[in-house]
């Protein structure tokens, strides 16, 4: 029913719930903004320190916002992005095609046309927008839980859990420009819209408006994050599973498949027909499902064994079609943009060891490892994990029974009477959110970086289960045992939040600040710098100098280039390193002691070890080596260059050093 047709006594709780949702969203934004300010003393540090605080790829993305604002006009700024020759030396690339930076373009244009320049610095306009999106995120989580349970108290609990488990639900306050911080609020809005769409008895107008909301949120999610296709593939898989077991309306599932494809294709057009999007598994999978459905028209008819047989054939047909279509597209377009991801997945799940440098670079990063066990202890401190597991178990058992009933087509009266206890799982919106949380939970368990997609939805799912009247019918006796504990937990969490807000720190990285000032003062604007991906992103943002490589890794040529540049940390001759660097137009190379003498990773995972293995050389230090690895004829370049031997000084001259960095200028030989 529409809002206008509601009775006054129904409007009141909706109004109160809406006010609470908006209030909690705004409070979350203020909370994370305060944490960011307290952690860095952002308002008091210099501009270069603010920019250095945007570490690794965050600095790279922010640099394009800065570039657009500093451009003479919007048209010139856009031209500079489409024909960029500063991000990768000796190459002109289209930033709008390669990277998801339309949000930076939009914000920079907005900043230029709004009359706020006198009151608000560009950096604050940027970070406040991101913190503002956290309000959208929390409101979307709140609404999803409210829709599922039927009470806004469920949304209140979801939002409170999101805030009290902030360490595991978001990292926006210290990785502000990261793509996921732009994308996840829109993903949460999309889930809320899908949850509403899957309700029964929607009016045609409501359904159409909801489909528009799903499309817009899907499009914005896809536009703002390069990993959109992989997240939506998992979502499509959830829809496919539920459709196979007849737990969702087929017509609505079809619309969702079409929306995913059309949203992604629209992004593809805006990104100048980005090859990684065209070759995505999502497009191949969704197309395969729609084709397979056309071929197998009587998929949902017959008895249990008949249905199971058809289902197995359907799954095999979809799988084969997906692989064939994807292989065909990649062959026709000669696509290799995402091959490093599949190499990484192959090695991660034990399908053979690899010496591939790119795959090992991911495998050795903690963020791409398994989810640490201490995550669960933190989530248990607020009782979130206990409630989540209990609700998940209950709903999964019920969903299995419902799926079995749907496949068998049983209409026995006794069976139906038993099933009345599980009506909650018959609701398509609850069934979707169940499979969604299971699949994204598996993703989070396998890859820590992706936990934020799961933990935020965990808050929604647990609060829904706790506040839903249908679930209460089954767990009333169990739940009241937790009531006093839940109250004491909120009381315990409140001082922790206040302690975080009162803790004051300050940004401190004098060596990097000194390096950036030196580069700006002592090198020409056209100078080309080589070094680690993470540091060079900061060099571009703080100094505007040209780079040889950068952290946006979704390009095969860049990956090969980075591996070549990183030979500065391998056991190579000075002549080899000089030749490689000059081939990319390098004029200055920055060596970092933290990489050359790295101790953060164990043996076999240090950057120098990955390079040694890729080059077929024995690794440094005590420990085993693979039998076919051989000693290098040369010492490690980053160590040996510091001895100022003639074979090195003929090619490299040290022009700057401090406790962390060593900068060498390359000699220009005739």
Which short descriptors sum up this protein?
670 residues; Dpy-19/Dpy-19-like; 2 domains; five-stranded mixed sheet; 5 strands; single chain; glycosyltransferase; mainly alpha; Rossmann fold; 3% strand; transmembrane
Tell me what you see in this structure:
With 670 residues, the chain is mainly alpha-helical. The chain folds into two domains: 129-499, no CATH class; 510-666, Rossmann fold, CATH 3.40.50. Helix content is 66%, strand content 3%. The protein has 34 helices and five strands. It has helices at 8-40, 47-52, 56-70, 74-82, 95-98, 102-113, 122-149, 152-164, 166-169, 179-197, 204-224, 228-244, 250-270, 275-278, 281-295, 304-333, 339-348, 357-363, 374-381, 384-408, 413-419, 423-426, 428-446, 451-467, 469-479, 483-502, 510-522, 533-543, 556-565, 574-583, 593-596, 607-615, 637-640, 646-649; strands spanning 528-530, 546-547, 588-592, 652-657, 661-666. The chain has a five-stranded mixed β-sheet. Helix 11 (204-224) packs parallel to helix 13 and helix 27 packs across helix 28 (533-543). The protein starts with 7 loop residues before the first helix and ends with a strand. The relative contact order is 0.10. GO terms for molecular function: mannosyltransferase activity. Keywords: Glycosyltransferase, Membrane, Transferase, Transmembrane, Transmembrane helix. The chain crosses the membrane at residues 12-33, 123-148, 182-198, 210-227, 263-291, 311-329, 383-404.
Low-confidence segments, ≥5 residues, pLDDT <50?
A: 411-425, 476-491
Kindly provide the radius of gyration, computed on alpha-carbon positions and rounded to a whole number of angstroms. Answer: 27 Å
- Mind summarizing the main beta sheet? 5 strands, mixed
The neighbouring-strand order within the major sheet is 2-1-3-5-4
Structural class: mainly alpha
Task: Determine the fraction of residues in helical runs and give it as a percent range.
Answer: 55-70%
């Amino acid at each position: 029913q529409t809002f206008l047709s509601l009775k006054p006594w129904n409007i009141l709780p909706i109004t109160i719930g809406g006010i609470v949702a908006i209030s909690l969203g705004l409070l979350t934004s203020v909370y994370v903004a305060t944490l960011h300010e307290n952690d860095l003393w952002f308002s008091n540090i210099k501009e270069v320190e603010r920019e250095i605080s945007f570490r690794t790829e965050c600095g790279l993305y922010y640099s394009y916002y800065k570039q657009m604002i500093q451009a003479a006009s919007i048209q010139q700024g856009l031209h500079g992005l489409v024909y960029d020759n500063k991000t990768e030396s000796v190459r002109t690339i289209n930033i709008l095609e390669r990277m998801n930076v339309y949000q930076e373009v939009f914000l920079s244009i907005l900043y230029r046309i709004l009359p706020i320049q006198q009151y608000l610095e560009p950096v604050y306009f940027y970070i406040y927008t991101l913190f503002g999106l956290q309000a959208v995120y929390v409101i979307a989580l709140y609404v999803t839980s409210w829709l599922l349970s039927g009470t806004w108290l469920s949304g209140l609990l979801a939002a409170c859990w999101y805030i009290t488990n902030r360490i595991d639900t978001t990292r926006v306050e210290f990785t502000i420009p990261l793509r996921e911080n732009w994308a996840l609020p829109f993903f949460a809005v999309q889930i809320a819209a899908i949850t509403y769409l899957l309700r029964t008895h929607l009016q045609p107008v409501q359904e159409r408006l909801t489909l528009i909301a799903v499309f817009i949120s899907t499009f914005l999610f896809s536009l703002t994050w390069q990993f959109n296709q992989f997240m939506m593939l998992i979502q499509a898989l959830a829809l496919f599973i539920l459709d196979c077991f007849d737990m969702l309306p087929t017509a609505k599932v079809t619309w969702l498949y079409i929306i995913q494809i059309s949203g992604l294709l629209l992004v593809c057009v805006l990104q100048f027909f980005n090859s990684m999007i065209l070759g995505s598994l999502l497009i191949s999978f969704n197309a395969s499902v729609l084709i397979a459905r056309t071929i197998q028209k009587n998929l949902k008819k017959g008895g249990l064994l008949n249905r199971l047989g058809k289902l197995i054939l359907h799954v095999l047909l979809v799988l084969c079609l997906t692989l064939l279509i994807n292989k065909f597209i990649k062959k026709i377009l000669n696509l290799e943009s995402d091959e490093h991801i599949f190499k990484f997945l192959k090695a991660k799940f034990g399908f053979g060891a690899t010496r591939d440098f790119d795959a090992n670079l991911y495998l050795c990063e903690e963020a791409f490892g398994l989810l640490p066990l201490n995550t669960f202890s933190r989530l248990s401190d607020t009782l979130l994990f206990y409630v989540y597991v209990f609700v998940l178990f209950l709903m999964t058992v019920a969903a299995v029974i419902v799926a079995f009933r749907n496949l068998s087509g049983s209409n026995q009266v006794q069976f139906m009477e038993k099933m009345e206890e599980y009506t909650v799982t018959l609701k398509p919106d609850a069934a979707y959110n169940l499979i969604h949380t299971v699949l994204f939970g598996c993703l989070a368990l396998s890859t820590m970086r992706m936990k934020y997609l799961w933990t935020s939805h965990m808050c929604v799912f647990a609060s829904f289960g706790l506040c839903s009247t249908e679930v209460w019918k089954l767990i009333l006796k169990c739940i009241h045992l937790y009531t006093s504990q839940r109250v004491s937990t909120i009381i315990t969490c409140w001082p922790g939040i206040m302690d975080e807000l009162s803790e004051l720190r300050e940004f401190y990285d004098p060596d990097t600040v000194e390096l950036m000032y030196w580069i700006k003062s002592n090198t020409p604007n056209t100078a080309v710098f080589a070094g680690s991906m993470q540091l060079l992103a900061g060099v571009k943002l703080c100094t505007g100098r040209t780079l040889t490589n950068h952290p946006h890794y979704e390009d095969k040529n860049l990956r090969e280039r980075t591996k070549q540049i990183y030979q500065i940390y391998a056991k190579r001759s000075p002549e080899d390193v000089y030749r490689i660097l000059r081939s990319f137009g390098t004029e200055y190379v920055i060596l970092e002691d933290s990489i050359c003498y790295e101790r953060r990773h164990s043996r076999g995972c240090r950057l120098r070890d990955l390079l040694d293995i890729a080059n077929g050389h024995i690794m440094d230090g005590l420990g085993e080596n693979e039998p076919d690895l051989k000693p290098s004829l040369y010492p490690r370049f980053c160590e040996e260059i510091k001895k100022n031997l003639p074979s090195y000084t003929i090619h490299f001259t040290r022009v700057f050093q401090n406790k962390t960095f060593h900068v060498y200028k390359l000699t220009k030989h005739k």
